[in-house]
Amino acid sequence: MNEPKPIDWSKLRGDFPILGQQINGHPLVYFDNAATSQKPRQVLDAIRRYYEHDNANVHRGVHELSNRATDAYEAARARAAKFLNARSPEEIIFTRGTTEGINLVAATWALDHLKPGDTILLTELEHHSNLVPWQMVAQRTGAKLAFIPITGDEGTLDLSRLDAQLADGVKLLSLTHISNSMAVVNPVADICARARLAGVVTVVDAAQSAGHLPLDVQSIGCDFLAFSSNKICGPTGMGVLYGRRELLEKLSPYQGGGEMISKVEYFKTTYNVPPHRFEAGTPHIEGAVGLHAALDYLDAIGRDAIFRHDQELANYAAERLAEFKGIRIFGPKRGRAGLVSFVLPNAHALDVATMADQKGVALRAGHHCNQPLMAKLGVPATLRASFYFYNTRAEVDRFIEVLRGVVKLLGS
Ligand code: C6P
Q1: Which of 11, 24, 288, 367 has its CA 20 to 30 A from that of 256?
Q2: Percentage of the chain surpassing pLDDT 70?
């Protein structure tokens, strides 16, 4: 077998104009990638090219520019289908991001199907975007919520009772692939297989996994999967919802308006076929163009290699952080995804992040939209460093050096 060609990570870093700058007189160390990633020139150029040459509205015109815009938009859909190994582009709905993707399933499948006594199964790891929409559905339908528990500070799921939980009136299971606070990678293929055996519809929140490891919706076996473009080198305000064709065909529309119809009369409307039925109004065309470029960019590197790179940085950061006395590091000891959350003794996370920023290090501090999880862990907030393929070991060393200075100043 041929050895894979070694990747020149520092050359890739050169594709990101934003990373070369100084912040507060220090070189920028950008460790907030789980919130949003930076964008390579290739994505910025694709958006610029689109506006300079092809800009028009889609699916409506008979003129050349409209045809080009439509082609670009639909080519992005086909590219997203390939990225996820969906069976066809018709299974790809463009959204504003993961949050809207999950809300779309909640507002359509869940409101159509759930009734009092049914259960929606989630995990204790979920981001508010994969919790609040289900609370709203529960309030409206009379369904109840149940949670797969986690095991302490490692945050891995306790799946020992999963089959019994699934058998207890569960109609829908929605779970994150990678936890944005705990760096846990959930075994989604195994969990979805068990859910399918129990006749349960599955939703995977891939916000933290889509740009970090290979994703194959057919081998995961989920019914729906959502991700955001902004976390994977693409533009903000753009996202993808994959839905299994058999389900999409039977789904009620999400919002009403242009594009989602096939015939409108004053008192009734016949709806368009999926995926257009779920995309009312003028879509985020340049978002699709930029996302297309981002998917090409990531796949030219290889998501396996990206995962190994990010994981190695996260392991190294966790190892170096363990040098701090009294530190509490969250997440699994083995198999951590590319981020690390931690709490320093006697130091408020926000103070630490603000002081680190003075030295050019961008961290995130807070509950990371995981308030129930933070309550479960008994902390108001954590500090989080999250990595991407353009980050380096030298940046981790710089982060540790800055953190040492902060701890010394705070006397913690
Ligand atoms: N997390 C962070 O951790 P949107 O805002 O729709 O692009 O993504 C929401 C979302 C859903 N699920 C998970 C697991 C997530 O991590 C996120 C976004 C960001 O910094 C913002 S809180």
Answers
A1: 288
A2: 99
Q: Which is catalytic among the residues 192, 222, 233, 369?
A: 369
- Whether the bond between 275 and the residue before it is cis, its omega within 30 degrees of 0, is yes
CB contact set of 125 (below 8 Å; sequence gap of 6+): 150, 155, 157, 175, 176, 179, 181, 182, 184, 186, 370, 373
Which tens digits make up the pLDDT trace of 102-114? 999 999 999 999 9
Distance 26 CA to ligand 1 centre (A): 28
73 CA to centre of ligand 1 in angstroms: 24
9-31+303-410 and 44-299 share one fold: no
Q: How far is the CA of 209 from the centre of ligand 1 (A)?
A: 11
* Pocket lining: 99 vs ligand 1, CB cutoff 6 Å: yes
User: Into which CATH architecture does domain 9-31+303-410 fall?
Assistant: Alpha-Beta Complex (3.90)
What is the band of 5 on the pLDDT scale with cuts at 50, 70, 90? confident
pTM: 0.98
Residue in 308, 385, 402 with CA at minimum distance from that of residue 340: 385
What's the chain's average pLDDT?
97
State how far the Cα of 313 lies from the Cα of 31, in Å rounded to an integer.
11
Mean pLDDT value of segment 346-362: 97
DSSP 107: I
Measured CA distances, 198 to 126, 194, 201, 223, 368 (Å): 22, 7, 9, 14, 32
Would you give the DSSP letter of residue 229?
Answer: S
Distance CA 377, CA 374 (A): 5
Domain ranges of the chain: 9-31+303-410, 44-299
369 catalytic? Reply is: yes
Q: Is 212 helix (H, G, I), strand (E, B) or coil?
A: coil
Whether the CB of 96 sits within 6 Å of ligand 1: no
| Fold classified for 44-299 | Aspartate Aminotransferase; domain 2 (3.40.640)
- Residue 370 tokens read as 């995981």
Question: For ligand 1, atom 1, which residue shows the shortest CA distance?
Answer: 35
For 377-399, what is each residue's pLDDT tens digit? 999 999 999 999 999 999 999 99
Does residue 59 have a pLDDT over 90? no
pLDDT tens track for 269-317 = 999 999 999 999 999 999 999 999 999 999 999 999 999 999 999 999 9
Q: Is 126 in the pocket of ligand 1 (CB under 6 A)?
A: no
Q: Which two tokens stand for residue 82?
A: 């390939």
pLDDT-derived band at 2, boundaries 50, 70, 90: low
